[in-house]
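#struct-pred

JT: dropping the chains for the assembly here, can someone run the whole complex?
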Amino acid sequence: MSGYRATPASGPREAAEWSNRRIVAMNLRAIVGRAYPRVIGLTREPSWIFFEILLPFLAVSAFVFVYRALDAPEEFVGFVVLGGAMTAFWLNVVWMMAAQFYWEKDQGNLELYFTAPMHLMSVLAGMAIGGLVMTSSRALAVIGIGSLLYGVSYNVQDPLALVAVFVLTMIPLYGMGMLFASLFLLWGREAFHLAQLLQEPIYLLGGVNFPLRALGPTVAGIVLATLPLGVGLDAMRQVVFPGAAEGILPVGAEMAILAAMGVVFLVGARLALGYLETLARREGRLTLRWQ
Amino acid sequence: MSEELAIHARGVTRVYKAKPSPVTALGGVDLDVEPGEYFGLLGPNGAGKTTLIKILTTLLLPTSGTARIAGFDVVNETAKIRRVINMVAGGEQSGYGLLTLREQLWMFSQFYGLPAREGWRRVDELIEITGLQEQRDQKVRTLSTGQRQKLNFARGLLNDPWVLFLDEPTLGLDVAAARDLREHTLAWKAAAPGRTLLLTTHYMVEAEQLCDRIAIVDRGKILALGTPEELRRRVQAESIFRIELDRLPANGGIAAIGALPGVLSAVPADDGVADGAGSDRVALKVALADDSALTSVVTAVAERGSSLVGLAKSEPSLEDVFVELVGRGFGDEDEADPAP
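RK: done, full complex below.
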């Protein structure tokens, strides 16, 4: 029965004194811990191949056939396939990040997160990293299948720029998910409806299936100021199909916008989380099941 | 060991906003729990037990009053408190069903900062202790309710907490699983001295079996607090015996027994004659100032020509104590718990 006791501390006062190094290490481990179920889920639930790759690919295919029927430039097929891949990230952000605290509350996990010593930002970061890893494989599958089926050819002259744009897109995109995680819990009693509310409009405003420029300068300007998916896609298309894709702004400017968005969304997520915790403790709801 | 109280609460109130009027879940709770003590909060739904646990585990702010865990303030020193506590609730469905039992425990170990390898070692240790070896690689969603609650209990011990909160831990478990969990709790007490347990329950047996002291709570107030023995004495200062005789005593009968020194009363027991038709057997309920008066009763019975057939001391249950204090039983709840 010795296993019941594990720590050498002589009392709770000593056990509660942690060095900064230990606190940082604990939060890093919490990130890994929370990312774990997402990553392991890839191998546990193979049904995702059908539901999250093959089914969404039908929508991509529909746009491919529309563009071909209209004799649009062949690069448009590539735009759609790339948009389809990036859509996987958006769906992940809306359903698995923004709505996640809501599901966690229902399962009773949220109050355990609150009573554990890690910072809740670590939980969100773990969710984001796990989701990113999981969704990257889906996005790659969409690109692979799309390229094979529709013969898309890519012309990446600056791979480093592509990686930079991708990373700079993911930071604000998942930062937005981290922000929404708190806001969904604060606003909605039905995360399902809020997720649906966000899902479809972004397909349009994000320029998932067409060049963002087609929206006109005013709407495109709004997208540039608010939607990391739209900005990231616009920049990525310029890098992957140089010459063929005319962006709203030069890639460098869009990367700067993405970097600024990253800061805004992450700081926003941190503030919203702080507000959520304060409200949860004050009002006696939000973290508790069935409230 | 620290000399700080494990739990210290003074005038803790909690009022929930509600319509048409606010609900007072806690109405000024004072509580001191010593390190190493197993303490029970016993009360029906709506008593305020869960609200108190939520405050002590830093999930809720008190509306007024102060509370400390190991000397740390629950309002301002939450980070330190969260390093030394853990909590397990009855019916808990925490974690992720696609993980195996072992993976789930490991994931939670990371939230307490255990290094990865140490986390796996600790997980295996707790799996063995709680007897979950056969289920270790089973997905969490396939576990039975009892196995699930054992897993939750193991999760609660991952960080070797100095104060463990068990909120209705055996809720919904069958008899065997509940007994199993109580045995694990007692084993933890024996193996990890200095650890404190705060248990909420509305099962009398559970409180009595696990707790050194018990507070009876109702409608946000502590009505009585003490060891189980002390609580019973609150409602029954005298010793009550059920004495079974082969026949009624002669020479004054029951009245003569009642007049003996040290005997407060002697009346026929509620169930009257103990045997079947044709029997003279009789059962008496005799109240004594203390147990020493029993000798004179037995002697007097023999002198009056009766023989002692049976003798049993009648102890009040904790439910008797509750009914005496509250004026209603556990089954007569009239109010839903404002806290979940």
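JT: nice. Chain A is about 75% helix and 0% strand. The CA atoms of residues 173 and 205 of chain A lie 14 Å apart.
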